[in-house]
């Protein structure tokens, strides 16, 4: 089965999002290295925050059917460079996490993500309430099974 590679800053909610996509509820652990699991490649947050790791992300993307860029709705900064999705030769999607957090600013998060993902689909998600999780999982499954 093909995989989706999930990329986002430290603390953006990548591992928690992955657990929600798998229907799990235990606390997420910090990702220290690339983790391959079923149809997911989980990447450490440092990989998106440090340009020295971009080459590794680009190389790893060749093992995936799609890339999912994750933006935390509580942050006021984008950790991806402008046009980041253009570095991948595969479909790129976006996910805004923590949309039900009291400090969430969904419109800002979408605007920040659009700097790096000008045209890809963006899904609004909350691992806490499961909002948007089924829709994102369905879309990912369409991609990895095609």
TrEMBL record:
Q: Superkingdom of the source? A: Bacteria
PANTHER family given for it? PROTEIN YOEF
- Originating organism: Paenibacillus aceris
Q: Does the keyword Nucleus apply?
A: no
Q: Which UniProt keywords apply?
A: Nucleotide-binding
- Under which name does UniProt file this protein? Ethanolamine utilization protein EutP
A Pfam family of the record is PduV-EutP
Q: Family membership, please give it.
A: Belongs to the EutP/PduV family.
For this protein, the record's SUPFAM superfamilies field holds: P-loop containing nucleoside triphosphate hydrolases
Gene3D superfamilies in the cross-refs: P-loop containing nucleotide triphosphate hydrolases
């Amino acid at each position: 089965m093909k995989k989706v590679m999930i990329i986002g800053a430290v603390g953006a909610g990548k591992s928690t999002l992955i657990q929600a996509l798998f229907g799990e509820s235990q606390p997420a652990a910090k990702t220290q290295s690339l983790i391959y699991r079923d149809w997911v490649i989980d990447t450490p947050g440092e990989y998106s925050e440090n340009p020295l790791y971009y080459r590794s992300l680009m190389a790893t993307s060749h093992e995936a059917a799609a890339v999912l860029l994750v933006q935390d709705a509580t942050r006021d900064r984008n950790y991806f460079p402008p046009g980041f999705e253009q570095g991948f030769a595969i479909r790129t999607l976006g996910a805004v996490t923590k949309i039900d957090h009291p400090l969430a600013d969904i419109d800002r998060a979408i605007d920040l993500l659009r700097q790096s993902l000008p045209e890809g689909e963006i899904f609004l998600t909350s691992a806490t309430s499961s909002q948007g999780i089924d829709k994102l999982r369905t879309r990912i499954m369409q991609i990895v099974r095609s």
